Amino acid sequence: MSTEIKSPTFPESVIDGTIANWIKQEGDTVSQDEVIAEIETDKVVLEVVAPFDGELKKIVKNAGDTVTSAEVIAEFERGDASSKDVDASDETTKSAQNEVNEDQSETPLQESPEENIPEETLEPEPEPEPISETSKAKAGPAAKRLMSEESIDPKDVKPTGKGGRITKADVIAHMNPDGEVTPATAVSELQSSGEEERVPMSRLRSTIAKRLVKVKQETAMLTTFNEVDMQPIKDLRAKYGEEFFAEHGTKLGFMGFFVSAAVQALRKFPIVNASIDNEDIVYHGFQDIGVAVSTDRGLVVPVVRDAGNLSIADIELKITEYSEKAREGKLSIEEMQGGTFTISNGGIFGSLLSTPILNAPQTAILGMHKIQDRPIALNGEVVIRPMMYLAMSYDHRLLDGKEAVTFLVAIKEMLESPERLLLNL
Fold first, then answer.
1. Would you call 400 a catalytic residue per the annotation?
2. Can you tell me the distance from the alpha carbon of 130 to that of 120, in angstroms, rounded to the nearest whole number?
3. Whole-prediction pTM value?
4. Taking a C-beta distance cutoff of 8 angstroms, is the pair 36, 19 a contact?
């Protein structure tokens, strides 16, 4: 008896999603809780798993199709995932054994081995069959060319393009099953071919693009800059880093200090922690800090809840957890909703200075950058110090320049004197 496989129940903030990929195909045997498909929403990629051992009988919604909450996407039949493989193996073994027995019964013992070899076995191996145009119909031109050159059957290639379309990256991944093929690699291969391939924008990428344009159009965004001497924090990390890791099981990073400094600054300047709702100003009595994380699918912003009640160790542990989930595509929608203030660290990619864009409906966002040794004047002397540029973009409709600048200066002072974080100064 078939069972309907439905899309996950989406939160109220998510209207629909797109079938990103079918990991299993019709006729495949699947074990319980094994991932059979991925659904991409505006915020996160959700996994669809098998409810029990069985077989994927029919795919109702193909890759690229739009689905709503709890919509039927496939039909599944209960069964033992391993039994069919075992039965098939037994049947193959029995068939092969019967053929051997028949050959042996018909072959006289006195005949030589050469006399018993059928003529068919002496023929050379047949050449691989050319790939037909029909089988390549859902492949891009670059993918078609590569499959023809390498004599690859499209049926053996796992498609990831919209509508089950095979891209050149899919072919490369098939040719290198043990190697990692990144989008950059695929693009590089495509550029070297002298061809072009049109690939639809992912749902997440499309949503990010629309939101960024909306922020630019609907807010009076302005950015103020400052710089911070990171030597005191670097000294703390060098002195207590090993002991911190032994005690808490996580590294003493920079983000814990920045989140803690942001929390205290938000308490001093509650207007920065507020947001605009039509004609009203909404003041938030909590500090939920969003931490921007870059993934292969795009930028996601998981939220550290009640950061004001967390220690630096708790913050570092939570950020590490979110980073791992983001890389694996396992962040839940609830973990990315809300947030009253966002911190983005472009420095990990080498950015020296940039202008972060607001994460609506928040009023401000803090941008961290690369730590770089620079000469500065300190106590009347020129010294070399590890300096970081800070950038804070804010909605000028709610924040005046004075408030934005003093807020950023408060963060700078706490980072240059980390003891302030412990003393709530």
1. yes
2. 22
3. 0.62
4. no
Structure tokens at 292: 């921007």
Q: How far apart are CA 389 and CA 347, in angstroms?
A: 9
DSSP H helical segments within 1-157, as ranges? 83-106, 113-116, 141-150
- Residue 258: CB atoms within 10 Å: 24
Which pLDDT does position 50 carry in this prediction?
85
Task: Specify the pLDDT at position 157.
Answer: 85
Q: Is residue 33 a contact partner of residue 12, using CB atoms and an 8 Å limit?
A: no
Residues 136-150, mean pLDDT to the nearest whole number: 68
Q: What is the pLDDT of residue 335?
A: 85
Indicate the class that CATH gives domain 205-423: alpha beta
Q: Do domains 2-78 and 205-423 have the same CATH topology?
A: no
Please state whether beta strands 29-30 and 275-277 pair in parallel, antiparallel, or not at all (unpaired). Answer: unpaired
Position 193 scores a pLDDT of 58
C-alpha separations of 323 from 304, 326, 331, 344, 404 in Å: 12, 5, 9, 13, 29
Q: Does residue 420 contact residue 413 with C-beta atoms inside 8 Å?
A: yes
Distance spanning both ends of the chain, measured CA to CA = 67
- Assess whether pLDDT exceeds 60 at residue 68: yes
Of 1.10.3720.10, 2.40.50.100, 2.40.10.10, 3.40.1010.10, which CATH number belongs to 2-78? 2.40.50.100
pLDDT of residue 66: 85
Residues 236-262: tens digit of each pLDDT: 999 999 999 999 999 999 999 999 999
Tokens of 197: 């391939």
Answer whether the bond into residue 177 is a cis peptide, omega within 30°. no
What's residue 142's pLDDT? 66
- Confirm whether 396 is a catalytic residue: yes
Angle at 167 between CA 161 and CA 170, to 5 degrees: 95
Q: How far apart are CA 213 and CA 15, in angstroms?
A: 20
Q: Where are the domains of the chain?
A: 2-78, 124-200, 205-423
CB neighbour list of residue 290: distance below 8 Å, 6 or more residues apart: 301, 302, 303, 304, 339, 341, 342, 343, 359, 362
Of 16, 248, 314, 396, the catalytic one is 396
